[in-house]
Design brief:
By secondary structure, this protein is α/β, with parallel strands linked by helices. The chain has six helices and eight strands. Helix 1 links the parallel strand 1 and strand 2.
């Protein structure tokens, strides 16, 4: 068996005689820091589905925004929770500060990574989240929930508790 996350190796050994760890990677010729002026934007990227925990991210951003009025939250991706998230954004009073960007083509995505000050991964489950590598190589500051291989990529001080809206 092959797995992309070190924390999956032991679990996979129960089903396979041999398990090989093969980490995900990205094309650093494509994902690189273009040295653009950064905007006060926190970026998240992923399908609009429950596992990405964008509802918690929006509620947490609301608390952050109360002390940091010059920031925006951009969420790139599309999915079946779009209407639910739009309603939550409206209920939280963040219509002008949280933007659901939809699916972006590669150039638009790279531009978002290179314009945002910070990237956040809010998922409650992941394997090896390539979006963290994409963001890092594009020069974003990165924080992420404690899922999958995040501990293999980021120092502990940049890892936040799962399902937390307070931190």
């Amino acid at each position: 068996g092959f797995c992309i996350s070190l924390n999956m190796v032991e679990k996979m050994k129960s089903n396979h005689k041999t398990v090989k760890y093969v980490p995900n990677g990205i094309d650093t010729n494509v994902f690189h820091n273009q040295k653009k002026k950064r905007k006060k934007v926190i970026l998240a990227v992923g399908s609009l589905k429950k596992e990405k925990s964008f509802d918690n991210l929006i509620m947490g951003f609301n608390k952050f925004y109360n002390k940091n009025k010059d920031y925006e939250l951009h969420i790139a991706g599309e999915g079946h929770l779009r209407l639910e998230l739009e309603l939550l954004i409206k209920e939280e009073g963040l219509k002008d500060k949280v933007h659901l960007c939809g699916n972006l083509d590669l150039n638009e995505l790279i531009d978002e990574y290179n314009s945002a000050e910070c990237f956040i991964l809010s998922s409650y489950t992941e394997g090896f989240p390539k979006v963290i590598l994409e963001a890092l190589f594009c020069g974003c500051k990165v924080v992420a929930t404690d899922v999958g291989s995040v501990k293999d990529i980021l120092p502990q001080k940049y890892i936040i508790p799962n399902n937390s809206v307070a931190n």
